[in-house]
């Protein structure tokens, strides 16, 4: 049996060095809610486990000029308790707070959710719709990519050896903008999304000025659906526009049949969720609170 | 495998142990320290039977690596009663038959205590969602939810619900 | 101290005191299966077949045995061959020749997860490494998963010599149909000729798991002289002893089994998986061996309950009177014969008084784990079909669904299709209680629709032993031998206190190991409070008889001149003489002079289990765009005999109802094309979570069982039967679409709604 090492990284540089030295056998331990399960099932066999929770910038939330930078390992529960972030990006925070149980919330992070690279990750469609940027550090310095460019396929990221996800930056937001995330699960909790849909809207009066739409669990990676966004922009979210956007969502799906859902079902639900999420985002701009779990 | 030395606090007592780098906190509690009140129902964070708190934050101990406990404050079911005195939740669970087989009970108690510390006046829906990560196959949850709601009311000093 | 009993006949029965094991179970002190350890113990792990169907050509364990830290490896050749002999386990029956093959595959691996070898090593990590070093040479065979496929003439046959039983003349060719059963009453053909309306439908259900939160675990220690001790999480430690003795050629007296606290079973812990392996490994190593299953192993290789296909045909008069009924049940047995198809057939129409009934059942093997009992085994499957069909009948006749059932309800004197004539039963009372409930009388909330369904279960008696010992101070220990899975210590102590006339907290109930009390059949079939309760009552009566003898000695009178009242011996009449009553404490203080320790004993084979009936009312809301179903209100009414500890009776109704709701909505075993289970974990085997549910309201209808001194009926089985159809009927009334295949999961319901939409628009 190979020797497993557990290392606590003191800073980002230290963590990158440890990952580089592990030559592909290194795994970042943030919340561990995916990694430990994968280790138990044997699907991941780390040589070095690098714990990043002692790195302050990776477990904190900083606001600067209206933008928020959230440490990649910040527990979901901590994110949910950040009132201002929640008010500014209710959809993303709601999505992050849908990851697993209360217990899992105490550990799981948005960064870990992204790095696990599951197409069904709850926080990712919401972050894609929100235009969140992933801040990466590595042996060759720092770089940033939009979240939708972060994953390469199921279980695969575009991180290079020695690179780690340090934080996520949520852009500045006006009062005329909000977002929503909805997922379809068979139960009310404790399930992986059969389909997830994130919508971010900026309104001018009752007209959509800008929109971003994303879908999870309907393709190998989370999709940014420009056609759906275009169908919403300029509309007053009347039925015709919503129908067109829903159709664009369904058209964008290239899902699989599996134990969680069928191609037919996922394709249909993508459109259903789009309509509902768009109306919730608009309601939020209008000061109407939404706390739906479905 | 080289063992890691960990110094931590469990139920208020300074505790040291040696663990493997890939051992879970649950395994150490149960196998190294004899604290078998935390149960393993799934080992994947889906049942909540291994619930403990770390620095007051509710977690599944099967999803925590044992070395991560270094310098933290861990609370388990074994630390819930104070001497001879059961915690109000423990007392109410027995009184209201909120357990049948009892395997999920330690996890439900730890999770419910964490809830009431954060939210002393939860609605039924809030209790149900907070406890959605704790599986119980015997009770249908009814009496568990009722017991938590009643303890919340009592702890607020309200008359019995 | 609880308030007095609501039942004026009793002081303790019907009260709700704290359970005797309460403090242990809320503090983590209670020790369950995996909580037991012995010094120097080894860890055992099982190597399981990755193939659903394969010939085991050879097994090479040499590399595993050579690994440092590995102390022993066992395969099928370490276990003796068994005779073709059927033995009972709970409500199900198993063949010893099959059990030995189920605990360790011999000629063939018959399902994915089937054990093929086991290892004992100094640590779990080394045991796991050793498993990877065992080389098994398989010849992979075509597999078959579904019952309908397994019944086809060209299906891969699991057991070469298996000729269908119950068919005359017997077939000449082996098949996967183990058995055909048939039940007849009256003349179904003539009945249907008389019918003014006939409804016929085909239904199906998927395999589901019992879902106990505690995985199987066992610790065994075998000594060099042949003596064996076992600690096991089981519903029946006497069954563990009996099976292990047979499977390992030991005397039962050589094996001492202690039942640990048990973290749920629901029927799934009435058989052995790990225990014989742990004993054999312990024998070979001379060290204690501990084995636990992972959750994945629990799903792949224990339980489950079967799925099945059911065809139902019901004929009625326009006034709702059912004149003929048929059903055919094809049931999964798993890899070995022995599905609960018999009980499924027997229960199908048992709620109703129907003159002409014809029922046929098939027990069918396929490449799935061997099924185990699960709460009223088989009955939910046939009830799903029958109760759905009755709902269609009610809708077509425009009758209230409870009125339709009342019109046909079984009563005292009703003869069932399987030949038994009912004594006093509470079907009518239960229907009436549901009908007059606040729930049923109020309209469903906007957006919700309501379904109703009923269910029946026989309940079980069987063998029990008990003892009652008086301590030196007069307090009492009551000893029995059934693991307490849901509060039975409390119900036994309540009956003992009532019978003895002492306070509940003066009675300490204890569950003894197999060497410390006489034989007890499993905790199953809802028999403990009924049958073991009767043994406890009889042991207390024996104790009272002894107390009277002792008092008579002290007073120098005849024992017949002593009566027992309020926990004291008193003179039976004024002519006996003036004596101060003697309490248990007073009798105990003088026991040395009157004949020694004061104990009572009882052993009996209990018959006369009173059947139970349940009626459930369910309100659901359906999201038509997504197919998601929300249960908004739920009431379970049941004939419970006498509720000894009402809280735990309610708990049985609530827990059973929720298991049934899970079965109806989301739970299912999902196999992929390779014959492997795709969802062996709590994430994708979707049992209900707290946020899925409303409160489960209960109505305890107390129709005492005339054969029991306190009127006890088993209560644990019935509540899982009605929910499947109660949910399905509510969904049908909410959407206009009748679901005939379970589970009614969002993708399935959504597809059905979409398929029906054009038709409904046209209508």
Report the total helices of chain B. 5
Number of domains of chain B: 2
CATH class of the largest domain in chain A: Alpha Beta
Please give the radius of gyration of chain B in angstroms. Answer: 16 Å
Intertermini distance of chain B:
55 Å
Query: Into which percentage range does the β-strand content of chain A fall?
Result: 25-35%
End-to-end gap of chain A: 45 Å
Helix/sheet category of chain B: alpha+beta
How do the strands and helices of this protein lay out in sequence?
The complex is a heterotrimer of chains A (about 290), B (about 160) and C (about 775).
Chain A: E1 5-8, H1 12-21, E2 26-29, H2 35-41, E3 48-51, E4 61-64, E5 67-71, H3 76-80, H4 83-88, H5 90-96, H6 102-105, H7 110-115, H8 123-130, E6 133-138, E7 141-146, E8 151-153, E9 156-157, E10 164-170, E11 177-184, E12 195-204, E13 207-216, E14 223-224, H9 226-232, H10 239-252, H11 263-285
Parallel strand pairs in A: 1-3, 2-3
Antiparallel strand pairs in A: 4-5, 5-10, 6-7, 6-10, 8-9, 11-12, 12-13, 13-14
Helix pairs in contact in A: 5-8, 9-10, 10-11
Chain B: E1 4-10, E2 13-19, H1 25-32, E3 51-54, E4 57-60, E5 73-75, H2 88-95, H3 105-118, H4 124-130, H5 142-155
Chain C: H1 22-27, E1 42-48, E2 54-60, H2 62-66, E3 70-74, E4 86-89, E5 92-95, H3 96-103, E6 108-109, E7 115-121, H4 124-133, E8 135-140, H5 147-150, E9 177-185, H6 188-194, E10 197-205, E11 217-222, E12 228-232, H7 237-248, E13 255-259, H8 275-285, E14 289-292, H9 295-301, E15 308-316, E16 322-334, H10 341-348, E17 357-365, H11 379-397, H12 401-408, H13 427-435, H14 438-441, E18 449-457, E19 462-470, E20 476-480, H15 488-500, E21 507-511, H16 528-555, E22 562-565, E23 568-571, E24 582-583, H17 584-589, H18 591-594, E25 599-606, E26 612-623, E27 628-639, H19 646-665, E28 696-701, H20 723-735, H21 746-762
Parallel strand pairs in C: 1-14, 12-13, 16-17, 20-21, 27-28
Antiparallel strand pairs in C: 1-7, 2-6, 2-8, 3-7, 4-5, 9-17, 10-15, 11-12, 11-14, 15-16, 18-26, 19-20, 19-25, 22-23, 23-24, 26-27
């Amino acid at each position: 049996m190979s020797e497993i090492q557990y290392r606590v990284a003191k800073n980002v540089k230290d963590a990158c060095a440890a990952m580089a030295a592990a030559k592909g056998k290194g795994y970042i331990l943030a919340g561990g809610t995916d990694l430990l399960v994968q280790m138990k099932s044997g699907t991941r066999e780390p040589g070095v486990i690098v714990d990043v929770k002692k790195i302050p910038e990776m477990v904190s939330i900083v606001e600067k000029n209206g933008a928020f930078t959230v440490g990649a390992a910040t527990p979901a529960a901590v994110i949910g308790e950040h009132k201002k972030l929640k008010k500014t990006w209710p959809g993303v925070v709601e999505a992050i707070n849908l990851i697993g149980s209360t217990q899992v919330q105490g550990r799981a992070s948005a960064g870990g959710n992204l790095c696990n690279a599951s197409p069904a990750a709850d926080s990712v469609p919401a972050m894609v719709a929100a235009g969140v940027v992933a801040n990466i550090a590595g042996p060759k310095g720092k770089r940033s990519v939009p979240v939708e460019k972060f994953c390469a396929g199921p279980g695969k990221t575009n991180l290079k050896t020695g690179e780690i996800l340090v934080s996520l930056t949520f852009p500045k937001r006006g009062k005329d903008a909000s977002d929503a995330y909805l997922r379809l699960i068979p139960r009310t909790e404790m399930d992986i999304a059969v389909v997830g849909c994130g919508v971010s809207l900026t309104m001018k009066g009752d007209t959509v000025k800008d929109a971003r739409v994303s879908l999870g669990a309907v393709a190998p990676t989370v999709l940014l659906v420009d056609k759906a966004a275009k169908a919403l922009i300029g509309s007053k979210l009347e039925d015709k526009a919503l129908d067109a956007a829903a159709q664009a969502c369904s058209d964008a799906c290239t899902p699989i049949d599996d134990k969680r859902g069928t191609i037919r079902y996922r394709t249909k639900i993508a459109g259903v969720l789009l309509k509902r999420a768009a109306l919730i985002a608009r309601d939020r701009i209008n000061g109407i609170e939404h706390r739906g779990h479905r | 495998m080289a063992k890691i030395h960990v110094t931590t606090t469990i139920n208020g007592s300074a505790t040291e142990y040696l663990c493997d780098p890939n051992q879970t906190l649950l395994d150490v509690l149960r196998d190294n320290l004899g604290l078998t009140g935390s149960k393993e129902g799934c080992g994947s964070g889906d049942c909540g039977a291994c619930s403990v708190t770390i620095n007051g934050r509710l977690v599944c101990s099967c999803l925590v690596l044992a070395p991560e406990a270094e310098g933290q404050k861990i609370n388990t079911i074994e630390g819930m009663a104070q001497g001879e005195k059961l915690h109000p939740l423990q007392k109410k669970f027995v009184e209201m038959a909120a357990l049948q087989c009892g395997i999920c009970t330690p996890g439900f108690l730890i999770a419910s205590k964490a809830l009431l510390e954060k939210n002393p006046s939860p609605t039924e829906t809030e209790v149900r969602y907070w406890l959605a990560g704790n599986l119980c196959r015997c009770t249908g949850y009814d009496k568990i939810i009722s017991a938590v709601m009643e303890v919340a009311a009592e702890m607020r000093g309200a008359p019995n619900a | 101290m609880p308030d007095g009993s609501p039942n004026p006949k009793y002081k303790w029965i019907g009260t709700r005191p704290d359970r005797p094991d309460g403090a242990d179970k809320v503090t983590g002190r209670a020790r369950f299966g995996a909580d037991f350890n012995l010094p120097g113990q080894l860890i055992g792990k099982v190597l399981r077949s990755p193939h659903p169907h394969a010939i085991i050509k050879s097994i090479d364990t040499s590399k595993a045995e050579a690994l440092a830290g590995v102390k022993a490896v066992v395969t099928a050749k370490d276990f003796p061959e068994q005779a073709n002999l059927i033995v009972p386990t709970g409500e199900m029956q198993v063949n010893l020749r099959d059990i030995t093959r189920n605990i360790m595959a011999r000629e063939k691996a018959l399902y994915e997860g089937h054990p093929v070898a086991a290892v004992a090593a100094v640590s779990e990590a080394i045991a796991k490494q050793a498993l990877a070093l065992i080389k098994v040479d398989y010849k992979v065979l075509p597999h078959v998963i579904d019952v309908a496929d397994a019944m086809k003439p060209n299906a891969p046959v699991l057991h070469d010599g298996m000729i269908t039983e119950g068919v005359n003349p017997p077939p000449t060719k082996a098949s996967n149909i183990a058995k055909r059963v048939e039940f007849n009453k009256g003349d179904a053909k003539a009945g249907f000729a008389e019918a003014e309306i006939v409804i016929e439908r085909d239904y199906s259900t998927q395999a589901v798991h019992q879902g106990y939160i505690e995985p199987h675990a066992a610790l065994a220690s075998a000594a060099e002289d042949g003596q064996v001790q076992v600690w096991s999480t089981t519903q029946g430690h006497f069954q563990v002893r009996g099976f292990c003795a047979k499977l390992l050629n030991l005397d039962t007296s050589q094996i001492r089994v202690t039942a640990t606290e048990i973290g749920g079973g629901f029927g799934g812990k009435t058989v052995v998986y790990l225990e014989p392996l742990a004993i054999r490994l312990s024998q070979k190593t001379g060290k204690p061996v501990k084995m636990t299953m992972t959750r994945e192993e629990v799903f792949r290789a224990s339980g489950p309950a079967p799925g099945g296909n059911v065809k139902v045909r019901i004929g009625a008069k326009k006034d709702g009177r059912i004149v003929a009924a048929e059903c055919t049940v094809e049931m999964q047995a798993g890899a070995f014969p022995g599905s609960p198809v018999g009980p499924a057939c027997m229960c199908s129409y048992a709620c109703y008084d129907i003159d002409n009934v014809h029922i046929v059942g098939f027990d069918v093997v396929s490449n799935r784990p061997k099924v185990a009992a699960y709460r009223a085994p088989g009955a939910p499957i046939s009830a799903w079909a029958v109760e759905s069909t009755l709902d269609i009948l009610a809708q077509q006749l425009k009758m209230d669904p409870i009125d339709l059932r009342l019109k046909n309800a079984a009563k005292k004197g009703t003869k069932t299709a399987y030949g038994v004539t009912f004594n006093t039963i509470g079907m009518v009372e239960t229907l009436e209680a549901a009908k007059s409930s606040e729930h049923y009388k109020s309209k469903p909330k906007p957006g919700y629709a309501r379904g109703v369904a009923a269910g029946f279960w026989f309940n079980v008696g069987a063998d029990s032993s008990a003892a009652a010992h008086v301590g030196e101070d007069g307090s009492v220990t009551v000893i029995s031998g059934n693991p307490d899975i849901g509060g039975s210590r409390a119900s036994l102590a309540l009956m003992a206190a009532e019978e003895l006339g002492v306070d509940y907290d003066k009675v300490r109930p204890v569950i003894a190991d197999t060497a410390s009390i006489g034989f007890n059949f499993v905790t199953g079939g809802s028999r403990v409070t009924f049958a073991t309760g009767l043994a406890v009552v009889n042991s207390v009566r024996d104790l009272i008889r002894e107390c009277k003898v002792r008092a008579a000695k002290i007073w120098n009178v005849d024992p017949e001149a002593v009566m027992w009242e309020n926990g004291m011996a008193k003179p039976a009449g004024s002519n006996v003489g003036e004596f101060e009553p003697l309490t248990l404490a007073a009798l105990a203080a003088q026991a040395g002079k009157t004949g020694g320790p004061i104990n009572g004993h009882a052993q009996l084979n209990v018959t006369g289990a009173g059947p139970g009936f349940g009626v459930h009312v369910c309100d659901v809301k359906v999201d038509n765009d997504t197919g998601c179903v929300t249960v908004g209100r739920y009431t379970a009414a049941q004939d419970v005999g006498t509720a000894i500890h009402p809280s735990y009776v309610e708990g049985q109704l609530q827990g059973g109802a929720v298991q049934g709701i899970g079965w109806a909505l989301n739970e299912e075993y999902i196999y992929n094309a390779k014959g492997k289970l795709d969802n062996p974990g709590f994430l994708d085997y979707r049992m209900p979570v707290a946020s899925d549910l409303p409160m489960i309201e209960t109505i305890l209808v107390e129709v005492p069982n005339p054969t029991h001194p306190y009127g006890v009926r088993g209560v644990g089985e019935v509540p899982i039967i009605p929910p499947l159809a109660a949910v399905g009927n509510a969904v049908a009334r909410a959407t206009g679409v009748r679901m005939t295949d379970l589970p009614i999961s969002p993708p399935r319901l959504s597809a059905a709604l979409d398929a029906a939409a054009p038709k409904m628009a046209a209508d």
